[in-house]
Every structure is written in structure tokens, then in C-alpha cells.
Design brief:
Arc Repressor Mutant, subunit A
């Protein structure tokens, strides 16, 4: 697994960060840490630390807007992780389909035994 994908999965492994990322995805203009903290069960300072983790993973971008720092979702890193998952899922789908075919073929070629008494 590439380090970039590992960092994305690590960042999204936390419930609070996943929720923040989802909120950023829904806000094209971005949101401030103060705005995000209004709906959170953690402090504004904790929100800032979570946002820094998201930014380090490439999932958020911070930009200054006057006196405020606005955070916006960045989807490139998430798309890379999604592609990684899709490739792995396709490989497993092929393996499972081959296994299923093998089981069906084995059942068809198995001679039926009738018990005689």
C-alpha cells in the first residue's frame, strides 16, 4: 500500500475526522474551525488539530479569508484511496467468481450416489 493511501486511511479512521471531512464536502466555500466546532462534541482546538491531520493527508486545504482560516475539502487524496480500493475489490470479485465457478463445476461433475438397501 502506498504511503499516501495509508495516510488517507489513517486520517479517516477517526470518527470526528470523517464527520469533519463530510461537512467540508458539503460546504464548497469551506468552513472555519469555529463554524465546525458549533456542531461538534469537542473543542475548537481539537477541531483545529483534526483539520491539520486532514490537511496533512491531502483531504483538506486551509486558506486565509481575512482574519479567518477557511477549510475546504480536497478530494484528490480520497480519489487515490478510492481507486486503490476499487482495484483491490475488482481482484477479489474475480477471485470469488472463480471460486464460485469452481464449486459449481465440482458439483456438476460429482457423480450422484444413490444408496441401495
Amino acid at each position: 500500500m502506498s504511503d499516501d493511501v495509508s495516510v488517507v486511511f489513517s486520517a479517516l479512521s477517526d470518527t470526528t475526522r470523517r464527520r469533519l471531512f463530510e461537512q467540508l464536502l458539503e460546504a464548497p466555500r469551506g468552513r472555519t474551525a469555529t463554524e465546525l466546532a458549533e456542531d461538534a462534541s469537542v473543542s475548537r482546538q481539537a477541531i483545529v488539530k483534526h483539520l491539520q491531520v486532514l490537511a496533512n493527508a491531502g483531504l483538506a486545504v486551509a486558506s486565509r479569508d481575512g482574519r479567518e482560516v477557511r477549510y475546504r475539502a480536497a478530494t484528490g487524496a480520497a480519489e487515490t484511496a478510492s481507486t486503490w480500493l476499487s482495484v483491490r475489490a475488482s481482484a477479489w470479485d474475480r477471485r470469488l467468481a472463480a471460486l464460485e465457478k469452481g464449486i459449481r463445476d465440482a458439483q456438476r461433475s460429482k457423480p450422484s450416489r444413490s444408496r441401495r438397501r
